[in-house]
Inverse folding.
């Protein structure tokens, strides 16, 4: 039995659906019966769930916790040549924030709640309990891997797994096409709540605003969407405790306007973010 298969069986026993990866960290190709889509395309590839094919077919949908499938003759050739083991995060009930470089890791440490982390070749995986849609390139060097995706297994990591926060879910949200129009003013209501402040220090809020300004400033495309998602992320973290001030909002608006956004669009995006979060 190969070492990769032994690892896969251990992961399966712990509830993580594994699959083999070949050289290049990519899944094995479709089996002869499914090659060139001769199977007609598995319907279950469009929704979270396992593949019906007995071979390690169809990428993430091949992941399974069934030891008999993993150890079956149909999978033997794949395990004998596998270069690594991956797993389906959504199938394990988790979401992986894949940080692909040092800058992305720095952003996460200043922005995201602490959770279990796994070191990777170029960055880190931050793992949260809960599932969501998978989205690539939600910001420079950051991918979200959960439902209908796979992540390479690199060890259990360190730290306790936190619940999937709104700030991560917000990264995958696109601005609604129909905006709720709001007055064309720079100063807009914060509508903060009176709940307990979650910020560890005042500097935490300042760092969060600075990172948000940087994200807007560095946007090279899809500026509208970047501005909205950044506003959504700021409000999901800081919008309920009443700490945000007009000065913080002005910094965000100024950064957006420097990228060519109008005051009207900034106000609409801010209002839409409040509405999306129920603030």
């Amino acid at each position: 039995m190969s070492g990769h298969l032994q690892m896969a069986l251990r992961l399966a026993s712990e509830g993580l659906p594994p699959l083999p990866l070949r050289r290049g960290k990519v899944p094995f190709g479709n089996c002869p019966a499914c090659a060139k889509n001769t199977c007609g395309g598995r319907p279950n590839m469009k929704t979270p769930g396992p593949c019906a094919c007995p071979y390690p077919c169809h990428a993430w949908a091949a992941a399974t916790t069934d030891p008999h499938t993993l150890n079956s003759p149909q999978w033997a050739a794949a395990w004998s040549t596998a270069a690594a083991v991956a797993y389906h995060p959504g199938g394990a009930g988790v979401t992986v924030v894949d940080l692909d470089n040092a800058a992305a890791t720095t952003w996460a440490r200043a922005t995201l709640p602490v959770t279990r982390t796994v070191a990777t070749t170029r960055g880190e995986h931050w793992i949260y309990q809960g599932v969501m849609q998978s989205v690539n390139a939600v910001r420079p060097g950051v991918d979200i891997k959960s439902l209908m995706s796979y992540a390479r297994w690199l060890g259990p990591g360190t730290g306790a797994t936190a619940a999937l926060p709104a700030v991560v879910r917000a990264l995958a949200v696109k601005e609604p096409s129909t905006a709720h129009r709001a007055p064309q003013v720079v100063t807009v209501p914060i509508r903060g709540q009176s709940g307990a402040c979650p910020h560890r220090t005042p500097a935490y809020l300042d760092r969060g605003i600075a990172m948000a300004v940087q994200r807007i400033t560095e946007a090279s495309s899809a500026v509208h969407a970047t501005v909205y998602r950044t506003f959504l992320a700021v409000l999901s973290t800081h919008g309920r405790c009443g700490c945000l001030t007009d000065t913080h909002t002005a910094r965000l608006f100024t950064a957006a306007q420097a990228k060519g956004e109008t005051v009207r669009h900034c106000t609409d995006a801010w209002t839409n973010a409040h509405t999306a979060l129920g603030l």
Q: What stands out?
A: Strands lie at 18-22, 26-27, 84-87, 94-99, 116-119, 124-129, 135-139, 142-145, 151-152, 162-163. Residues 178-195 have pLDDT under 50 and may be disordered. Residues 202-217 form the longest helix (16 residues).
